[in-house]
Design brief:
Elements (H helix, E strand, L loop, with lengths): L1 H10 L1 H16 L6 H4 L2 H19 L2 H10 L5 H19 L1 H18 L6 H15 L8 H10 L3 H26 L18 H18 L5 H15 L9 H17 L3 H11 L3 H12 L1 H9 L5 H10 L11 H11 L4 H23 L1
Helix pairs in contact: 2-13, 4-11, 4-12, 6-7, 6-8, 6-10, 7-8, 7-18, 8-10, 8-19, 9-16, 9-17, 11-12, 13-16, 15-16, 15-17, 16-17
Length: about 375
């Protein structure tokens, strides 16, 4: 029992932290009717629907099929790493950084092993992780904090993308430079994967339609309630097991932070303190706080004290670089590495931290 509790606390550290903060704040600001105004239901609904649809797309084999098709065309080590990194980079823009890493890091570890490139595994997985975190910052659906900040900022999709486009281009250039410098043109041979997942084309069409409905909801053409009804009915009829594969802890974390931030906003002394801090440099402050509590909670926390959405969007996205917990998605790669190669734990942490600090330093120089 105690062991199970410890595992839960370790696995869901952010959820536990957000719950504790929300719980304590309830004693300072007792629950009342204002609590109902705290929660951004549209963000919760859209995130829930995206999770279901993306889980469906993954289950029908779309992402693995795309990865395998691209990997079949590679000839050199440099091309191999380029494909793995860019898969994470571009996929994260549409399926979130979490899902991109859950999908492609295990495939990457398998391919690296088959290509006898284990010496570069830590560096490669780190690059894949950085690419997923940086690629995801381009779109409103690339990561949870973007979806939330997009929702409350009332920016158009085009405006949001234009804000993050320069940083996304810089990210791509930095990643390409790393690949060019660190990997050779040495030929690499990879046997065909034995456990290929057959693509379910019929189901794929349905899930792609549902994904388009999610996008239409994000840009405000379809009501979030209508989207929820359509997707929920479809999932119940088509594949209700997907309901068991949703990251409900993330949704609960959102709700807890909504409560915490809502209560903090009603405590004058805290409100004035944070507002005064944010008068300095929102981008740098959000990057710094992200290193400690990760960028999603940082977005929720600071959004209650400023309306400088552009600064907060840039800061929390760049803030995903740095420490292992700066972006919780980074933990996905870390867990995959230590599960498959326990002896590489310290080496991976060293390589991950060093490379992230280099990327973060470059962006901080550009932001100042």
């Amino acid at each position: 029992m105690i062991k199970s509790i410890k595992l839960f606390l370790k696995k869901e550290a952010v959820l536990v932290m957000s719950f504790i903060l929300a719980f304590i704040s309830c004693f300072v600001v007792p629950p009342d009717k204002e609590y109902f105004k705290y929660i951004d239901t549209a963000t919760i609904i859209i995130l829930f629907c995206l999770m279901l649809v993306i889980s469906g797309l993954k289950e029908v084999g779309l992402f693995q099929h795309i990865g395998e098709a691209l990997l079949n065309k590679i000839k050199t080590e440099r091309q191999l790493i380029l494909v793995l990194v860019l898969l994470c980079f571009f996929a994260s823009m549409f399926i979130t950084n979490d899902v991109a890493l859950i999908t492609f890091v295990p495939l990457g570890i398998l391919i690296i092993n088959m290509a006898n490139m284990n010496n570069s595994l830590c560096f490669t997985i780190t690059l894949m992780t950085i690419s997923a975190n940086l690629g995801s910052m381009l779109t409103p659906i690339g990561n949870p904090q973007n979806l939330y900040l997009y929702s409350i900022s009332n920016f158009s999709v085009i405006k949001f993308i234009l804000i993050m486009l320069p940083y996304t281009i810089i990210s791509a250039v930095l990643l390409l430079i790393c690949i060019w410098l660190m990997y050779s043109k040495k030929n690499v041979n990879i046997d065909k994967l034995e456990d290929k997942k057959k693509l379910d084309k019929n189901s794929l069409i349905y899930y792609l339609i549902l994904f388009c409905l999610c996008i239409l909801t994000v840009i405000g053409i379809i009501s979030d309630i209508i989207l929820l009804i359509i997707i929920f009915i479809f999932i119940l009829v088509k594949n209700r097991t997907l309901l068991l594969k949703i990251d409900y802890s993330l949704l609960l974390t959102f709700i807890c932070f909504f409560v915490f931030v809502g209560n903090i906003n009603r405590i004058a002394i805290f409100y004035e303190f944070i507002v005064n801090i944010l008068n300095y440099n929102i981008r740098i402050i959000s990057i710094f706080i992200s290193q400690i509590i990760s960028n999603v909670p940082t977005a929720f926390l600071l959004a209650g004290f400023t309306e400088k959405w552009t600064e907060l969007i840039i800061g929390t996205n760049i803030g995903g670089l740095g420490t292992l917990i700066a972006s919780m998605a980074s933990l996905i790669s870390y867990k995959q590495v230590i599960i498959n190669y326990p002896n590489l734990k310290n080496k991976y942490l060293t390589v991950f931290t060093l490379l992230n600090i280099i990327f973060l330093a470059i962006f901080c120089i550009l932001l100042i």
